Amino acid sequence: MAFNFSERKKFGTWRRLWLYLAQAEKSLGLPITDEQIKEMEANLDNIDFKMAAEEEKKLRHDVMAHVHTFAHCCPKAAAIIHLGATSCYVGDNTDLIVLRDGFNLLLPKLARVISRLADFAEAHADLPTLGFTHYQPAQLTTVGKRCCLWIQDLCMDLQNLERARDDLRFRGVKGTTGTQASFLQLFEGDHSKVEELDRLVTAKAGFKRSYMVTGQTYSRKVDIEVLSVLASLGASVHKICTDIRLLANLKEIEEPFEKDQIGSSAMPYKRNPMRSERCCSLARHLMTLVLDPLQTASVQWFERTLDDSANRRVCLAEAFLTADIILSTLQNISEGLVIYPKVIDRRIRQELPFMATENIIMAMVKAGGNRQDCHEKIRVLSQQAAAVVKQEGGDNDFIARVRADPYFSPIHKHLDSLLDPSSFTGRAPQQVAKFLKEEVRPALIPYQNKMGGKIELTL
Fold first, then answer.
1. Among 89, 93, 42, which residue's Cα sits nearest to residue 67?
2. Which of 6, 27, 61, 264 is catalytic?
3. SS3 assignment, position 317
4. CA–CA separation, 79 vs 39, rounded Å?
5. What is the Cα–Cα distance from 198 to 207, expressed in whole angstroms?
6. Neighbour-count burial for 356-395, b at 16+ CB within 10 Å, e otherwise
7. Contact of 37 with 122, CB cutoff 8 Å
């Protein structure tokens, strides 16, 4: 990703765009020779960055600096480099290529994260765990089902990134204000040749379509679409890693923790979820970056103003670089998640007695009891048990009280089955299996050959 936004990629792409333009113009009849084309082809990566920097310092124009630098090593082609084009021909078209290639780098990484989490969800599809709403104990779910909530968000992100990439078009060959006037002049008023020139260059750059209308630039709303899906990915990652951080506090699940890793300089026992914290920190930054293209698009006057340029050079690169490292870190987390089933079971046992009260009432009614009498008995016993937990700091002894009360003797032998955690998880295991089979695994098929091995973090 760093190379994708590097100077070498940028200016190398500029030269390729100049080549595509010359090739297309030659094929449509402009007096450009094979020798000139071959000279350009031979110098695509022969970039004298020192000369380009000196030219830009003198000219105060990056595109013309590189036109001169390219012309210096292509003296025979110098006269036809950038013929009919404006700066945005190389600038904007290169940006669109870089954005497309950036998505192509992110998508396999996101697919790998989804794949790792899917394996985790499948392995723990049946493991009951306490659910939380309002971060208060709620009905049981399973570890795998909770993980599927994370996966579903990431699958939406996968779909959104694919759509944003596929929706990208090429700016193409449009001229200074988007009217193609310079090219119409070059081809002596032949509209069909101008349209064909646009089509040829668009195809050479690997795009199926170009924007039919542009100003000097492609619409900056395109950048909004691009950064919006990355911001949405940031929101998903922040939620996932926040859940992991909360579960780490409960000692139910932990991210990978190396043998010699130190959690705190002062407290040797600490096992801080620093990878998840890092993801949350970077995700917040990623989510804020979409504000830049929103404001840029809103203040572009008429066909274009240059106050977009410096801002875009920062926010577009930062968004993709941030998303890239977030996904690398999340992959590392997802490949090494550690669960503690006994801790999970202990927490269930603390809360399950109260959750089982409805089952106990139903069982008593089936055994011939009165629903209202049973409800009152349970209300009294549950409040007594709650007082032990809250006021005395003891364990939940509600079931022990039920066992000791002769009123409940008709169902004493059934209490163990009534308290089986798996009977409280509903269809969670089946939902996991169906979701992974019908939605998740099929979405990963295009990336099967890019799953790679485990990722190690150096920091």
1. 89
2. 264
3. helix
4. 12
5. 11
6. bbebbbebbeeeebeeeebeebbeebbeebeeebeeeeee
7. no
Pairing of strands 136-142, 338-339: unpaired
As a whole number of angstroms, the distance between CA 76 and CA 27 comes to 18
Concerning whether 238 is annotated as a catalytic residue, the answer is no
Mark whether 134 is an active-site residue.
Answer: yes
- CA atoms of 173 and 214, how far apart (whole Å): 10
Distance of CA 39 to the CA centre of its chain: 42
Alpha carbon distance 195, 174 (integer Å):
10
Tokens representing residue 81 in the block: 């480099």
Taking the alpha carbons at both ends of the chain, their separation in whole angstroms is 18
Rounded to whole angstroms, how far apart are CA atoms 325 and 457? 10
Which tokens belong to 281? Answer: 């920190």
pLDDT at 377: 94
* Residue 128 backbone dihedrals phi, psi, to 5 degrees: -65, 145
Residue 339: how many CB atoms within 10 A of its CB? 17
Cβ–Cβ < 8 Å for 125, 212: no
Question: Can you read off the two tokens belonging to residue 446?
Answer: 């295009």
Tell me the pLDDT tens digit for each residue of 183-195: 999 999 999 999 9
Q: Say what the pTM is.
A: 0.91
Q: Which of 310, 312, 317 is nearest to 294 (CA)?
A: 312
| Cα 288 to Cα 315: distance, rounded to the nearest angstrom | 10
Rounded Cα distance between 416 and 422, Å, is 12
- Which residue from 265, 365, 277 is spatially nearest to 329, judged by alpha carbons? 277
Q: Please return the burial class of 442, using the count of CB atoms within 10 Å of its CB with bins 0-12, 13-18 and 19+.
A: exposed
pLDDT digit string (tens) for 331-388?
999 999 999 999 999 999 888 888 888 889 999 999 999 999 999 999 999 999 999 9
Q: CB neighbours (10 Å) of residue 223?
A: 24
Of 217, 170, 224, the C-alpha closest to 198 is 170
At residue 115, the 3 state secondary structure works out as helix
